Every structure is written in structure tokens, then in C-alpha cells.
Amino acid sequence: MAPSPAHSIPGTMLCLADYQREAAQRVDPAIWAWLEGASGSGMARQREQASFARHAILPRVLAPVAHGSTRLRLLGQDLAHPVLLGPVGYHQLLHPQGELATAAGALETVMCLSTMSSVAVEQVATRAQGPLWFQLYWQARREDTLTLVRRAEAAGARALVLTLDTLAQPASHHAIRSGFALPPHISAVHLRDIPPAPTIAGHWYHPALAGLAAAAPVLEDLHWLRSQTDLPLIAKGVCHTGDAQAIMQAGFAGLVISTHGGRALDEAPAPLALLPAMRAALGGDAVILIDGSIRSGGDVFKALALGADAVLLGRPQLHALAVAGSLGVAHMLKLLREELELTMALAGCTSLADITPACLIPA
Amino acid sequence: MAPSPAHSIPGTMLCLADYQREAAQRVDPAIWAWLEGASGSGMARQREQASFARHAILPRVLAPVAHGSTRLRLLGQDLAHPVLLGPVGYHQLLHPQGELATAAGALETVMCLSTMSSVAVEQVATRAQGPLWFQLYWQARREDTLTLVRRAEAAGARALVLTLDTLAQPASHHAIRSGFALPPHISAVHLRDIPPAPTIAGHWYHPALAGLAAAAPVLEDLHWLRSQTDLPLIAKGVCHTGDAQAIMQAGFAGLVISTHGGRALDEAPAPLALLPAMRAALGGDAVILIDGSIRSGGDVFKALALGADAVLLGRPQLHALAVAGSLGVAHMLKLLREELELTMALAGCTSLADITPACLIPA
Amino acid sequence: MAPSPAHSIPGTMLCLADYQREAAQRVDPAIWAWLEGASGSGMARQREQASFARHAILPRVLAPVAHGSTRLRLLGQDLAHPVLLGPVGYHQLLHPQGELATAAGALETVMCLSTMSSVAVEQVATRAQGPLWFQLYWQARREDTLTLVRRAEAAGARALVLTLDTLAQPASHHAIRSGFALPPHISAVHLRDIPPAPTIAGHWYHPALAGLAAAAPVLEDLHWLRSQTDLPLIAKGVCHTGDAQAIMQAGFAGLVISTHGGRALDEAPAPLALLPAMRAALGGDAVILIDGSIRSGGDVFKALALGADAVLLGRPQLHALAVAGSLGVAHMLKLLREELELTMALAGCTSLADITPACLIPA
Amino acid sequence: MAPSPAHSIPGTMLCLADYQREAAQRVDPAIWAWLEGASGSGMARQREQASFARHAILPRVLAPVAHGSTRLRLLGQDLAHPVLLGPVGYHQLLHPQGELATAAGALETVMCLSTMSSVAVEQVATRAQGPLWFQLYWQARREDTLTLVRRAEAAGARALVLTLDTLAQPASHHAIRSGFALPPHISAVHLRDIPPAPTIAGHWYHPALAGLAAAAPVLEDLHWLRSQTDLPLIAKGVCHTGDAQAIMQAGFAGLVISTHGGRALDEAPAPLALLPAMRAALGGDAVILIDGSIRSGGDVFKALALGADAVLLGRPQLHALAVAGSLGVAHMLKLLREELELTMALAGCTSLADITPACLIPA
After folding, report:
1. Does the distance separating the beta carbons of A59 and C216 come in below 8 Å?
2. Which of C283, C330, C257 is nearest to C109 (CA)?
3. Residue ranges of D for the binding site?
4. Which residues form the active site (chains A, B, C, D) (predicted)?
5. What is residue A313's predicted lDDT score, i.e. its pLDDT?
6. CA angle (A306, A307, A313) in 5-degree steps
7. So what's the pLDDT on residue C4?
8. C301 contacts in D (CB within 8 Å)?
9. pLDDT in tens, B114-166
């Protein structure tokens, strides 16, 4: 059962780690296992977490930083700061109102709604405080994919984020052991009327891979998708520069370097470590976002310094949602934004453009 | 006493680490100490375990991987996957039926039976589900070595694996402290009629080295062995490229880079770290296998990426045997095979040939 | 409440870590949290502590070291050793007499009094055992800054240390959680008659950054300060060589490489790691001091070897003050000085000038 | 009080770590603190221990190693193996018979008796099982130093080991806290009739350094010593190649790279790390020994591979002495020798000359 969020911010919430600790106390253990779980042994997530500690930020003094700002323009939209809410499914597991509550707390930023949302995009759009993006899981039949695109467009989504890294998702042993199962009143509402993929037998032995042929998009599908909508397209879960270049040539505006928060390939590298090569490969115009274990303003700063335009938060939005609902989400974003501003000021940066590799030093 | 294996797979067996944990509960502590023990301080084994974590696997997207497969051709035999059961002695310590039970669970793969088997090769051959290989310990008298070779040939073995790294085996302190001793009803049946080596005094002070002259093979012995049988020959326990080249020139088909699971030289390096130089030294045609702390599909993938043709499992087969007999062995192999397939699919590989050094990135 | 210091040195005080441990027992937990706390997650402080362990000191033998000494000439003053007491606020939190007690124990060294002192500079000057320096926090109005300068000059201060790295200070979560608040009878007496800064709204969202415009000095302010006093000027909290060069061109005598003991930018690098580049950038004549987790004579030696002229202690003076008042401060300095002498003798150095990069070796 | 040693080897003594553990149970805590203590924070000793783990040993196969041996010729003496007993003071703290018991167990190797022995060299010589060396601490007056030399010569010592690294010895905090004091019946018998050094005041503040002028040898003293005796001379505690070259030019036969088991400079590097440069600087003819945390045959092998001719054991001889007297010392040496032989055989080495840098690989 979803926890009852507090009606005000507990005074002990000073940073994102506090929200995580507090949420761990409030959330049902099986749901917590689902939320915190990663695939396999959890190596990918450990690497994510370790990657930020490898960089220190060089302090600057005497710069006139009083009039700085974290503003940016992203996919034609003006945003107050570069911390976006990334797509995560089933918010109702953490809060009775689910994605409606999250959207209400997503002040001055993008909320990217998941295909696996427990509330429909049309409803969430009514509560959105900033631009709404829609995350798209490829469906076995193009017409079903198109149905999702049309719903997102109609609801006012400003961009589509096509997730590519979950062709098959390794199980989280932690979640399985906890006995996690989706409760009957919660479901992926967008997929309610989409029939399951017809299986086309492959050669693999693993059952999860047997029906892949029908459900996994290939490059040609991206070209097709590009032809079907005017919305900006972002590919999520891209780590290889060659893949990225092909995606950009298919007309995408950019990508999210992501290992799905450690939920995809167990042995994946840390996204942060892939950033410099990705920026070098794609050039300055491509939109490059990143997610994975970003938990402080310093983490955001490092991601931007190494080449990201903005970052996506995953689990932290659900921690905050579980602790204090919309208020928690808004406060959690406020903490991160203030940390980023303080970091920028102490590093002598007055705009996101000032945040460059020269701001970092090996730790 | 050997534990009573379960008659079905416990639902908590999700990965090889689960089998190890469960086996630790079921197996007699002295037998467990023997099985898990390594030589000396255990440094070699610690290095093995740490070596895999140094590499991450680069995720790929958009590759059409539906029709992939883990098939390979090895020593003229078609195998469904590259995970083989390596030679380990005395399976009856873990299961009343010993190697018979293991063979019955070794679905679609090679079982390499040890000279130190507690069940004779002729019997094991009747239960083999795939190609049977025979591991050969060099005997002090060539005629005794030949007796073993002829029995293996007659039983239908498809390859001989000559172990070279146990010229003298340092004691496992852990096993000694546990008071481990082979129970009277279990023995190395192949050696029952072979007289102990006549001691030819050497100069060493260490008793274990005094009789070496008679029992340790030298290069000339390998040439002789090559002349005695038509079976493909594999040398096991080779770490040095110069040694490897001499072995190949003696007509061997390949080798296993191995430190005997940490049971030989305590201070040995991790086999994985030796792979790239070994492949470079021997070229593409030599069969290069590896063993040592391979516990996941990701580990198998990394070994193949760095130059191995296939891998051997040691202790995990006994963990699985102790937990659920033949069924356990089969299920353990299935887990590993599925993990490998999932890893391949997420890394954009549809065949083992696609798994190259470019698939890895330093972690 | 401030602890009651012992009237003699406990026999268990053998090194600075002992003083820290003992102080932790004696000091009120909230005050301890304030003293030991660092900004944010505490990463900057962890890096400080780890940086010293990266270097070992090469022992020398046969050098005639009997007549060595730790003497130095710094800013025109002769000092017995290169360990100075850096500025820390509110000593009355640790001792009823506060900075008066510290000054009485600061034998044969510089005490640098903080703007945030709980005792006025005029009083402290009457107890100073060596040269008194005054640490200056920039005030929103130049006339207020000048009032502080004039008081320091009149009290006999021999140098001014202008702190630049606290443009905005991230909160110490540890201190906030402990409920620390300054007791009513303790205050920053030098600021009693200085009105709060008038806020000039900036663009930042973070409240701590809103009024920055009025309070943070820029380069022009340093030139102005240089024109207002004949005292030597030192800038504190400088990490970037470009900043340092601009400061030296403004007529400063030198700087302190510091991250404010981990209280400024959470993600800052270790000062020790910045030393060699700073010395290379500024040349041999600039005064370069350093602070941050210096806890032994070996740490002092390493800082000098890497380019520092002298070091500043922060928290250790308050640990000693809490344990045994003036006597504790004097003893703590004696321990560090003896450790430095012993290190120098064993490294074959008879003067500070002998301590060069060649004395170190990677650890 | 010295512990009562067992009259036979406990069956659990399988390696040197076992002797250490067992001794810790038997020895008086204050004596244990003295024995195990290192100077200052103990960093030098930690580095010693970590240095061996950085190297792995490459296994070899097929080499005809049956007739190998660990024999060596050192300073004109034939030794069965390269593991020597280094000088440690006051063996009576660990055993009622002290150095007499140690000497009786030092089978087939050198025992180097300390100036600080609790039993006189003349008595120890009567029990020596192999060559006796004498370790010399420089005395304030040359005639006193000469008295020690003459006693050693007369007692049949075959070499003199002049310790240079304890010009001043930092206190072991661990020993001080334990309240360790030499019991009245134990003393440094060789120094009984030597008057304390007359103090010649130096400039240092540290009391331990005040009287250095009289007691610390300089290069000229080494030349003088060389002129006074025909015994081979070894300098102990040399880390710097320049120091070493000067010592060799003074006619010394070689040196021991040592940081006095972590009892001298707290921040010293690991001796093992200094070996390759030392061998390169001195060439192949110089005798280079090493001590410091050698606890296994693998450690001995690594030291030899990196350039040492032989190694010295410190604390392990006292662990063994405390556990089982002479028998323990002999058994401890036997364990180490067997481990070394096994390591050599598995690394394909039949003589110490075969142990070269090519036998190692980074771990």
C-alpha cells in the first residue's frame, strides 16, 4: 500500500539522502525493494554512485557572481534550472495520487511522464507546472506506438523520450526476493488497451529474449517515428557513440546517457564516465542529458562540466513523493537547485555556460 | 557425509551466489572448508574475484538481436553455449551419486571428468548429456598415465585435459583447520590400481617437493603423450605465454589459463588479467579456455571479450549439486546461460564472435 | 556551555588525535557538531584527510643534523616554527576565556585572530605570546571593513588575512541536526556595531546568494584594501592559480590555500594537491600557506616539501583548548613541533629550506 | 613476565600469521604492545604490509624443478636459505632464556644479535646453530663502539650490522599507553658498562634531538669503523640511493633497506618499493638485504625478485619464541623455507638466481 505522505516537510530533510532515508522508513518493504532494486548484482548502480566521487570542483574567488542564474533553453523551452524529472513508472505505489502529485510538485521544470504511468497523460497534463514530456516504450505494433504518440501530443507533451535500453530487462533479485507484485488497483494505464506483443520466435534460449523480434525497435523504426510526429525526439539509454550518431542522423534532437538507474545491463559503466566522449562525438548542438545517481547540486555541476545539458532524476522524486507528496517533490527540487547555485557561485560560475571541464580537477 | 539434495529447485536460487550461500548451509563444514579453501593466504583467489570488477560492458541499442545464439564449435564439437563443467574431484562428497548426478545435469555442455573422480569414467559416460572430456593427472610411470588415457578413450571421451599446475599443491589452511579427511567410502577410483610414485630424491628440503622428479611432466612428456592418442589435447593451468607456445608446438589444441581456483600458487595473478597477452601470443586458432571465479553471465562475457573461447566452472557445479542434485546443476547452467544471453543482447551481440575487446570499457 | 578544561595535561595526550578524542568527550554535542561539521556531505574534508597519505617521506642517514632548527622568517617576522594558529571563530564555545586562553598558549608562533572572535582584538593582543595577525571578513560597506582594519592595526596586528572563500557558506548538516545555536553570551564582538549588509537583489533563487552583491569582494576591492593599510596582506581560501596571480598583482604578500576546513565548497579538492601548481605559478617569493587536516609533524613536513612556507591549524587548537586550556594549546603545539623536528632529523633536513619535493616519494 | 613457551608445536601453527595470533594470546599485553608497536600513527608499518600485495607471481609449468635449492653464498658464508633472523632487542621479554633460546632454534641460518640483547654475545655464540652476526648501535664515544666490536669479534661474529636509522626513535604511542617498562631483571647487557652519552647541546627544541651530536654517526665514522675491523660491514636502515652509494664507498659490503619495522620515521615508504632503484644504483655485487613485514615464502620470493639477496625477519622470531621457544623458531623458519621452495617450484625457479623481476606481474 502506498504510504501516507506528511502534510509538511519534516525539518530533518536537508539533502536528497535525507529523503531517501526517510522514505525507506515509510515505504512498504516490497515496494522499497522494487524502487531501490537494480538488475543482477547491482554493479551498474555501484559504478554510477562511485563515478561522481572521482571529480572535485575547483573553487574560485573574486568573481562577481551576484547576478548569476541556472536558466537554460532546452528543446525550445525556457527552464529555470537543469534538473528534470525523468520517467519512472507507477508513482501510485508511493503516493495515492501518483503522478498527479508528482506533477503538482514539479515546479519550474520538465516532468517526463512514463509510458508505465499509473495515471493517464491527459490527467497528468492538467496538473503539470512546467513542460510535460512523454516517455515512450516501443510497442510490438507500430499502430500501438502511434496511439501513444498521439495521446501524448493531444495532451500537450512538448517532447518524446524514446527508451531504447530495455530490450530485455534483467530481474532485480532484491525485488524478487521481497515478493514485490503490482497491487491490482495499480496498472500501466496507457497500455490497458494495447494487446500483448505477438511472439516471433528467435533463436535465444532465454524466454525474455524469445519474442524480441516483435518488440525491439531498430534504426528504421526511429526514422519512421521521426516521420510521424513534429515533437522533438530524445533517445534514452544510449551509451555508445556510434549508436548515438546513428540516432542523431535519424533526426533526433538528442539523447539521455543512461543505464536505466542500474536496471538494464548489470555490468554497464557509469553514465558520467561516458559523457566527455559522447559530447566530443556529437558536437555542441546535440542535446545530451544524463541520469543515474545524481543526488546533489555538486553532482549536477559535474555532469554539466563534463558535457551534459541537463540531468534527469529518477528515484529521488519518488523518495520525496513518499515522504511529503507534492510538497516533498517541490522541496527536493528546491534543495538540489540551491545546492547547484551555491556550487556555481563558489566555483565562480554565473551561468550554466560557465560550467566547463576546466572547473573540475581529479579527486 | 554428503548432504541430501532437494528434489526441486528452491525458489530463492536466482543466481550462482544463491547456490553458494545455500550450499554453505547444507554441506558439512569440513567438506565445505575443503571445497571453498584455497592455498595459503587465499590471495590468488581474492585476485580472481577482483579481476572481473575492473571491466564494464558497454551497452548497445538498436541492434537487431532477436535471432542471436550462444552456439560455438569447440574441438570439432557443436556446443549450445560456452560454459563448460571443469574438472573437480570427489563429487560424492557433495552428493551420494557424485559425478553420475553431475553428468545427468550437464545439459547441452561438456563435462570434464577429473582423474580424481569418485565414480569411474566408464559409469559416468553412461549418464553424460553432452561431450565428455577427461582430465588427466600425470602419473609417475608413463604406463600408468597411458592406462588412464586408454580408459578415457574407451569410455568415449572426446578430449583430454592435462593438468600442469599442481606439480606440488600448497595446503589449504582452511581445510586443514577444519579437520577435513576423505571418508573411507570415497576415493579416486581411477587411481585405485596405480602404485604410488617411486620417490627420486631431489635437493629440496620441502617433503612435498622431494619426489617431484618422478611425477612432474616436462615438455618431452607432452610430445610423448601427443604420440599416444588421437584425442585433442588441452593443457590446464598455463599462465605464461612462453610455456603456452611450447605446449602448442607439442601439438596441443589449446589450454586453460587457470590458477586452479586459487589452489596452486597462492600468489598467482588473476587468469582474466592474463587473457589478452595469451591470445596475442597464440593467435586466433588456438583454443583458449579460462576458469576462476566465473559466477555470472557478465563474467563469461568479459572472459570471451578478452580472448577466451569458452570458460570452465569449478566450485559452482558442486554448490548446485549439493543444493539440488542433477536438477541443481542443470538449473545453475541455465541461469548462467540466460545471463549470458541477456548480456549479449544488451551489448548488441548476436553471436560469440561479436564479443570483442571493443565491448568492454574500464570500470 | 563551554567545558571546564583540565588544569594539567592528561598523560594520554601523545598526539593531536588524542586531543581530538578527548575533546569529543568533554565538549557539548551540539558545539562538537558545529566544530567538527563540514559543509554538505563532507566530501571536501574527506579529501583533505586522504591527501596526506598519498606521500611517504624518504629517510636519510649519516647527515649531521644535530644543529638543525625549524626557524623561519615570515612576513618580516622571525618564527620558531612553521605551525601557525589559523583563524577560527568563537573560542568561548570551547573555553570560558575563549581567545584569551588560546593566545596565552600560542607560544613562539603566530595567532591569527578571527573577525568572528568572541573576544575583542584589543584584549587578545594583551595576552599574545607571539605576533598577532587579524583575519578579515569583507563587510558590505567599505567603511565597516576599514573600521576592522584600523582596530587590528591599533591593537598591534602584524598582518591581515582576508578570507575570500565564504562568499556563501553551505550549511553543515551535522551542525543543523545537532540543534547548534550560539548561546546568548557569546557573539562576534567585532561585528557588534556593524549594521547588517543592505541586500541588493541578485538573480539567484537561493536566499544565501540573494544579497551577495553587497558583501562579496571583487578584485577592485583588494586594490582598495591594499591602498588603505601598510600591513602585509594575505588572501585566504585561494585554490585557483589564476585567482592567485591576480591577487598577487593587487599587492598581496601571499595566500592561504584552503577550503575552509571543508566548510566552503563541499566538492573542493584537497589543498595539499593544489600546492605544487600554486608554487610553480607564483614563484619562490610569494608567501604560500596552507591549512586543512594537518594533524602531525609529518603532515607539516609534506606541506612544506610540496611548496608551503608554513601551515595553519584550525580545529586542533580548539580541541586542545577544550581539553586543557592555554596549557593544552601550548602542549599541542609542542607535540607538533617535536614531531616536525623528529621528521626533519630522520629525513636528513636541518632547516626548512632542506625540505623539498625530493624528500617525498609516492606512498 | 615472559610467557611459558609450549614444549611442542601447537598443531594449529600453519603459517607465520598463526604464530602471531597465538603469541598475542600468550604474551603480556604491555610486552605485546612494545613488540607490535610502531612509531607514531603506524603509517610506515601499514605501507610495509600493503607493499607485498601489489605484486603477483607468474606461475610456470613444465620446468624440471626437482633438483632445486634455496642455497646462497652471502658474505663468504654458505647458507641453506635466504631468510635470516634480524636484530631485535630483549628476547627475554618473550622467553626466560631469551636470545639463547632463539639461537638454538636458528637452524641453518644467520642470527644477527642485537646490541640490545638481553644475553651477552659470548653466551649466545655458544648456542648458535649457524653464522652469528652482531648488530652494532653507534655509541657516543668511539672507544665504546670499539669495545662492542671487539666483543663481537672475539665471540666469533662473522659480520657487523651497523644500524643507522635510529638517530632518534619516535615513541610508539601504543607501547606508551600500555605502560610498558623493561622489568628490572632484563637489560641491554652489552651496554651495562658503557656510560651514557655526554650531551652536546644542539639547536633543536625536541629533547630527543638535543644530544644527537655525540651519538649519531656520520660518514667519517663509517670510514673509521671500516679501518678498525676485518669483519664484513653491513649498514642497516638505508633507504636513499645516495646514502647507499656513500656507504659502499666507505668499504661496506652492503646494506639492509629497512624502516626499522615501522619504528623509525612514521611516514617512511615501504622498503620493498625502494628495492629496484637501490639495486640499480648499487649494481649486482653489493649485498642488499631487506626487512619489514615479510610473513610468507611469497613475500621472500618477491623481495628477491625485486633485487634483494636475502631477507631479515624481525617480530616473527619473537612470536615463535613466545609460542614454543627454540622449537617454535626452528619451525617458523621451516614453514617459511618450505613456502619459499613451493613458490619457487611453482614459479619454475630452481635457484635463487632464477628469481628475477620477470617472475612478477602487477596484481
Report:
1. no
2. C330
3. 87-89, 114, 135, 137, 163, 236, 258, 260, 263, 291-295, 314-315
4. 260
5. 98
6. 90
7. 79
8. 267
9. 999 999 999 999 999 999 999 999 998 999 999 999 999 999 999 999 999 98
